[in-house]
Amino acid sequence: MFATYLIGLREGLEATLVVSILVAFLVKSNRRNRLPHVWLGVGAAVALSVLFGWLIEYTSTALLRTSESRELFDAITSVAAVVFVTWMIFWMRKAARSIAGELRGKLTEALAVGAFAVMGMAFLAVIREGLETALIFYSAAKSTVGGAGRDAMVALVGGIATAVLIGFLLYRSALKLNLSKFFTWTGALLILVAAGIFKYGVHDFQEAGVLPGLNNHAFDISSVLDPSTWYATLLSGMFNITAAPSVLEMVAWVAYAVPVLVLFLRKPAKPVAKPAEAAKPATEASASPVQPA
Predict the structure, then answer these.
(1) What is the CA radius of gyration of the chain?
(2) Do the Cβ atoms of 198 and 256 come closer than 8 Å?
């Protein structure tokens, strides 16, 4: 539940911030007549994302006939979701400061072309978040007990609704939020969620017969971590921590979570300042041609 809520909150807020930047630019530049085209693009992106999510679920439940093929499909989608989560987290940390300027520049170009360009630009700005959300939600929900049921969907929608509310309050300047810290904390939590999804993917590969060692358990703490308790359900739902994982599952969890967390939480190195032009040797300065007045 919490994992899918976090996915909806994080991805939803990214998409909401993108849309708010586009809307604010059009309002401030007195181009309100283009707002309907932005909303059409956003609506098309949301519709396609929902269709993509339904297609994934339909493929798993209706098109794949054998349990081995379904396990293999779930394993592949889990690995794909982990790749998308990792890329998204690091991309957002790098592009957070420049994304507003890039979006304004692209929207300016789209306005010069016409209505369809504005709609297409809004569509492309949102569709990435939507497709990522559908794929990550499917994998995260499948990795928990009960699969992608109604509770998981309610949690995802709740996260998206919270993100929309936060984005609206930020747009109206009714809320101040340190987005850098927000994305850092949610990014760290999502890395742990992704580690659980990766662990689940390895488990599915084992059940499909692609990887060995399904019954070779790393440990068994069922007496301490009773699967029927609320805290066991919470740990399983958030990070896919189970009482009796296989050795290969734990190797996968640690091999992903530890290095990715270290790289993400490490402060990026500050760029080395280039020497000023005035600091050039006098001989070099005198050798340069003098421009006529």
Answers:
(1) 24
(2) yes
For 221, which DSSP code?
Answer: -
Token pair for 112: 């010069």
Distance CA 128, CA 103 (A): 14
Cα–Cα dist 145/241, whole Å:
11
Check whether 288 has a pLDDT greater than 60: no
Q: How far apart are CA 4 and CA 141, in angstroms?
A: 7
- Output the CA torsion sign for 217, 218, 224, 230: negative
Average pLDDT, the chain: 82
Core vs surface per residue 221-242: b (16+ CB within 10 A) or e: eeeebeeeeeebbebbbbbbbb
Q: Give 217's strand partners.
A: 246
139-178 confidence digits (pLDDT tens): 877 776 555 567 778 888 888 999 889 888 888 876 777 7
**Do 291 and 226 form a contact (C-beta atoms < 8 A)?**
no
The per-residue pLDDT for range 27-65, each reduced to its tens digit, is 888 888 889 999 999 999 999 999 999 999 899 888 888
Contact 4, 158 (CB under 8 A): no
Of the candidates 122, 96, 92, the one whose C-alpha atom is nearest the C-alpha of residue 107 is 122
DSSP code of residue 211: S
